[in-house]
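Note to self: keep these together.
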Amino acid sequence: MLRWLITVGTLSLVFLLLATPFYTYSQFNAEEAIAEIEFDKLSEQSYLAHLSTGNLCVTHSYPIQGDQWQLDAQFIKWNGPAVMLGFKSQYQLDRLNGRYADIQQQNSTNNSAIDLSPKLLVTLFPSGRADDNEGLLIDTLYGSSVYMSMDETKRYRIYKTEDALIVRSEERAIPASDDGILTISITKACETKPSTLNRFSKQINRWVLERL
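Structure:
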């Protein structure tokens, strides 16, 4: 009985670790919002980017330089056998960085990127090279990017489509003050919570990585 429980527990742990990247590489829908970004200007060509991802309710701030922002993502398109098994195309946000409109300035400036890739024990990009991972199940691994000018008055919302990223901008909500009372307009609700299996697999992944 004990041996059976150990075997079942081990297989369950392996399954959850293998399942983690499939939850991290969120499944496509026709067009779905995956990130929002706003900017506060610190100085000339220097900004603080406020990036919300996932359910768009948790925001992280990063300093970036330039006139424009760029968001990159990795995409996976499955091959015939995987498609027959019901696998859907996947994406994962990769990096965020600033860029300069002037190419000469871009080439003469040391501009660093922010790594957005999650830390996974099991990854679908083990070598970091797409051509090393094409095979029986994976048709192609590729990247997609969007970029626009950094504007403090705009909120940028990034969407995933079937095979790429797209971005749309809208006026940024500015808190209003009336007789000393600050009013903040809430125009969106958080998405539903991820499934129990989704959360549990990510918790197992974090637990194993911490002990390695």
